[in-house]
Write a structure and sequence with these properties.
about 80 residues, single chain, about 0% strand
Amino acid sequence: MNCGAGEATSFNHIIAILNKVMGLDRKPEYIDNPHHARYQNFTQCDMTLAKKKLGFVPEYGVEAGIKDYYESGFLVVR
């Protein structure tokens, strides 16, 4: 069963969220993917079964989840 936020989020968007939440201005460093032939470029959680069988509905979207995690003190920045 898949559980997530039910929406795809790019790595660039995650970096933007982290920068916003943590007050940073980090830029990603891009490298060639050595696994490009087998790499899945797009993934998105299908939560249909989790909702049907468990009644699961996400409480957080990605940005709210990252913000809450950061505010918890468990996200360590180096």
